[in-house]
Amino acid sequence: MLTEIDFMDVVRLTPLVAIDLIVSDAQGRVLVGRRRNRPARGTWFVPGGRILKDETLDAAFARIAEAELGIAKLARSAARFEGVYEHHYGDNFAGEPGVSTHYIVLAYALTLTSTAQLGRPEQHSEYLWLTPSELLSRTDVHENTQAYFR
């Protein structure tokens, strides 16, 4: 596990690789959460997280799904790969001035039949289910989430 100082060096010097989960329900609505953490704190965003060093994509997907959604042992094969995206932020996890954050994001879409008790309060302060058109019309949904629906 990286120390905060070492992680700041990584953020300052390299892009991070992450997985975003584009989760839909049976009605076609998309799950977004209001972010607690930087970057993009306070905006609505799809769940996701970064891939750790030496972690396989399958292990990262399962870990992120459990941490962000509360779903244990979700297989990456249960999702559809939507493509590679770039996310750029003017800030960083620590609020360090002058340090931007750059993510390379692997986006995966999945539809859940049961959405009872979905989400984790330590990751997002609240959750919403929005149709793609609602998501695109709101100014508080982050541009990087809206990009998945354009």
UniProtKB/TrEMBL annotation:
Cofactors needed by this protein, per the record, are: Mg(2+)
Q: Where is this site: Critical for catalysis?
A: H124
Task: Give all residue intervals belonging to the Nudix hydrolase domain.
Answer: 12-150
Gene Ontology molecular function, alphabetical: GDP-mannose mannosyl hydrolase activity; metal ion binding
Location of the motif Nudix box: 49-70
Assigned keywords, A-Z: Hydrolase, Magnesium, Metal-binding
Q: Which CDD domains match?
A: NUDIX_GDPMH_NudD (cd03430)
What domain of life?
A: Bacteria
| UniProt cross-references to Gene3D superfamilies, sorted A to Z | Nucleoside Triphosphate Pyrophosphohydrolase
Q: Does the keyword RNA-binding apply?
A: no
Please provide an example of a Pfam family that matches this protein in its UniProt record: NUDIX
Checking NCBIfam families in the record gives:
PRK15434.1 (NF011963)
Name this polypeptide is given: GDP-mannose mannosyl hydrolase
Q: Which organism is it from?
A: Paraburkholderia ginsengiterrae
